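Appendix B. One record, verbatim.
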Amino acid sequence: MARSLARRLILTGTLRAIDPLHVGSADDGLEVDMPLSMNGQGRYYIPGTSLTGALREWARGHVGDEDGPTSLWGGIQWGSDVGSASRIIVDDAVARGDPVPEVWHGNGIDRQYGVAATRVKYERMVLPRGTQFSFCVRLDASNDAMADEGRALLWHLKTALERREIGIGAGSTRGLARVELLEAQCREQDWTSRTGVLAVLRRESDGADKELWSQAAAVRPVNSRTLTVRVHWQPKGPLMVMAGQDGLAVDMLPLMSADGAKLRLVLPGSSIKGVLRAQAERIVRTVLGLGAEGWESVRVGERHLAQLDAPIVTDLFGHARGKKIKKGGESAVSLDSGARGWLGIGSCYSSNVAIDRNDWDWLASAKGGESADIHGTFGQRLGQRIPGFEQAFHVAVDRWTAAPVDGALYSAIEPYGVEWEPIELRLRLGREGSDGVTDEVAATLLFAVMRDWCEGWLKFGFGANRGYGTVEVSMIEWQWQDESGQTRVVQSKQSADDRFDFGEIGDRLETWKRAWSQWMDQQTSGA
């Protein structure tokens, strides 16, 4: 028997990717480890199941029932055999136009030696920032009460998508997945009367839409439990992440990503996260006196997972899915389930450097003979076509003869004068992790990492040990909602003595410090 239908609520619009987007395919990639999903027409898309999961998860934390699925979302009720189909129908979101996918490379870093970790190299295919998708969500209400609940739910989903609060796809904590809703339209259909059904068939809009949806806006959601941190920074010298492919005239090219019709330098969120996580591990291991004992006894394929296991860090940054790891005959790490970290980090793009695709294709495919002299034809053309980019030559030196090593000459592009967007960090609050770790303890560790960042201890990107990647922080914005639902924004800047002043965040920082001290006392007494 068909379910009754009184009113149908429809939310449509355009989803635009703010960060690169990856929704994986079930098929194994032949050329790329993690390919993108494609529908039967060979078009890239976001499956309705992926959208539903993201929307439902956000709703449970903000306007839904945290104890279980509501009648709108359907599902099996906890502790019962009774369930129902979802009242919410989410369509597949097909990419508009013909977006050109990009391949982003990544690798893990061995914490003991500082080099690329063995067997931790991967390629991920992503759709670039600016890719647009068709978006449609329908809610079938069987009565007026359900319609009222549905209006409030869809209204707040619309608002959250417009505010970029819901991530879609993989890598939401490492520079991917952020989207925003554009051109949103809310429509309502009446299926209880002949007039309403005819209006639907004639594709006529319900004239009461504006009034009904404005009433839904008055229903306030649960406060957002997110601390947003925006770091305003600039590099002191050349900074780049090396691209996965080499050029012909230039050996090492910077990673570029599409932003509309142009290409921009990009610092992936995964690269930023790796730097911050390594520093967080260094702090925790120093404070707790945790060394590298037993790492050598771990199998090669699991060694990297063992190195990443550090208190607080796994809660703040997450951990990958893996098997139970043994060190010295004892079970040390169990990562069989995996967990997403509380901290999300956005990818960062250059703000003043945007390159035409033709210029970039010329640079990547220029012949080797054209770069024989930086002051010659290639160097002049490079400065004209891509201002701020310079070709630098390097050579290894023989330690015995002090002469250049034969065949060890290489070149790299060094970007100068590049301005960057702020780096955005998002810490989910209200969490409790392993060993009594709370969000306040995790926030204290994040603050310690940011203090080191502001003092110039951290470097980002390629060549951090050879002159690249030095940065300077000018300002930090802290944003959160207080108990009344009001958004608070506090800024931290450099003081007169060139030291960073964090005192403006006031009582919140003091609360974090007290929670950190209590947790440390528990760990010390337990030891």
